[in-house]
Amino acid sequence: MTELVHHDVADGVATITLDSPHNRNALSRQLVTELLAALEAARSDDSAVVVLRSADRVFCSGADLSEASEGAMEQGTRALVDLQRLIVTHPKPVVVRLAGPVRAGGLGLVASADIAICSDDVTFAFTEARLGVAPAVISLTVLARMTSRAAFDTFLTGRTFDAAEAAAMGVVTRSVPADQLDDEIARVCDDLRQAHPQGLAETKALLAREVVARIDAGADDMAALSARLFASDGAREAITAFLQRR
Predict the structure, then answer these.
(1) Ranges of H-type helices in 128-196
(2) Are strands 161-162 and 174-176 parallel, antiparallel or unpaired?
(3) Hey, which CATH number is domain 5-179, 3.90.226.10, 3.40.50.150, 1.10.760.10, 3.30.300.160?
(4) Residue 102 pLDDT grade (very low, low, confident, very high; cuts 50, 70, 90)
(5) 3-state SS class at 171
(6) Closest-CA residue to 126 (of 113, 150, 141, 107)
(7) Is 33 left (phi over 0), alpha (psi -120 to 50) or beta?
(8) What is the pTM for the complete model shown?
(9) Residues 6+ apart with CB under 8 A from 87
(10) Which residues have a Cβ under 8 Å from the Cβ of 44 and sit 6 or more positions away?
(11) Within 10 A of 199 (CB to CB), how many other CB atoms are there?
(12) Which CA distances in Å does 196 have to 2, 143, 199?
């Protein structure tokens, strides 16, 4: 089986790379399992900072709709809850590097991270409503970042929005020109590595307290809602139509 997530450590930075180009880094069972394992491994490696990125242009296209069309999403929705919680509670700061599109469930990874830097040509969309489902599980982290008006607008319409709007909404920390993205990631990592590991861990835990409480309070309900919607006739019809068009 081809590895879909790579974990490398150099110069105090653990780089976790999503590498599933055949489905645009969709959150398949294999990718989520490997990503959980890589994040766990990063707890005890020699890094001070974790950078989450994509090997290809697309960061993440959301749920694996091929798996969703086969049903049985209960484990998948719960695993996505666990993945978001692991990023939020990770003892090391997690920085997301975005050089390409992010859709639906992929925004849960972005919202879970401590710092999210994107190039100014990246686009985003919460496409769930168009597929007969809702951004239920990722709402546990996304709604902690966005304003209420922005959430109503983007969740309901499913429209595509750009990097500047994403930064204004709080979806990402900031956007930079595409040719400056790697320099900005390096600068952020340099700043973080100057902090004491205990100071980073304790400060992150302090900042994340409300998000963790939100995840723990809503995890079961949101996972159940997401699984129920994916199993519904309406969602299956919409997902099948989408897959056939693609």
Answers:
(1) 139-145, 148-157, 163-169, 181-193
(2) unpaired
(3) 3.90.226.10
(4) very high
(5) coil
(6) 107
(7) alpha
(8) 0.96
(9) 39, 52, 94, 109, 112, 113
(10) none
(11) 10
(12) 37, 30, 5
Token digits for 44?
């005890």
Q: Which residue has the tokens 């490696």?
A: 45
At residue 224, what is the residue type?
A
Helix, strand, coil % in the chain, rounded to nearest 5: 55, 15, 30
pLDDT tens-place string over residues 14-40: 999 999 999 999 999 999 999 999 999
Distance CA 8, CA 204 (A): 23
Q: What is d(CA 165, CA 68) in angstroms, rounded to the nearest whole number?
A: 30
Residue 156 near residue 135, CB atoms below 8 Å: no
The Cα 194–Cα 202 span in angstroms is: 15
Contact 93, 200 (CB under 8 A): yes
The per-residue b/e assignment along 63-86, b for 16 or more CB within 10 angstroms, e otherwise, is: bbbebbeeeebeebbbbbbebbbb
Residue ranges of the domains in the chain?
5-179
Report percent pLDDT > 90 for the chain: 91
39-81 per-position pLDDT tens digit: 999 999 999 999 999 999 999 999 999 887 676 677 889 999 9
CB distance 27 to 63 below 8 Å: yes
Residue 13 CA to residue 10 CA, distance in Å, equals: 5
Written as six digits, the tokens of 128 are: 């769930």
